[in-house]
Design brief:
SH3 type barrels, mainly beta, five-stranded antiparallel sheet, elongated
């Protein structure tokens, strides 16, 4: 077991309270005598991670290895990673089929014809870069149905109905 090895959690009894569960994969960033400081990424929010000191007996090593450029990037961001120690994964804010309203008038949306007050439906509850995929279907000026999906910041939406 060494720094930047990929690991899989075998026993989640001590880690569930952080949202980390059995069979989650992580990256070891530091080793102690009985523990491995391991970074786990939230499977529902790709931009969220936590660093936990995991008992070495609670993890097993994966066969895969990280590419050197990823190891360098991790090393360059080690302080940011350490600042997330013992963070608890947030529950998903949105669910598939939630009816949502766009709360802002912003050029990043208006260039696609989306304006404050637009109503849509969440089509995928995975969050990537704090954005969720929303379908803003409707009728065009010829009364033809269209369906458009956009990646919308979770902070720019509110749930109208579940």
């Amino acid at each position: 077991m060494k720094k930047f090895d990929l690991a899989c959690l075998n026993n989640d009894a001590s880690y569930k309270k952080f949202g980390v569960v059995k069979n989650m994969h992580g990256i070891i960033i530091e080793l102690g005598q009985n523990y491995a400081a391991t970074v786990f990424f939230n499977p529902r929010n790709a931009s969220e991670f936590t660093l936990l000191n995991v008992n070495k007996n609670d993890i097993s090593l994966d066969k895969e290895i990280l590419p050197e450029n990823v190891k360098i990037e991790l090393e360059n961001n080690i302080e940011k990673i350490k600042s997330k120690e013992n963070c608890i994964f947030s529950p998903p804010k949105f669910k598939v089929y939630d009816k949502v309203e766009l709360l802002v008038e912003d050029e990043k949306y208006t260039k696609f014809g989306l304006h404050k007050g637009a109503i849509g439906f969440v089509i995928d509850d995975d969050i990537i870069n704090n954005c969720v995929e929303v379908d803003f279907s409707g009728l065009d000026e010829n009364s033809e149905h269209f369906g458009e999906t956009f990646s919308i910041s979770i902070d720019d939406l509110r749930i109208i109905a579940r």
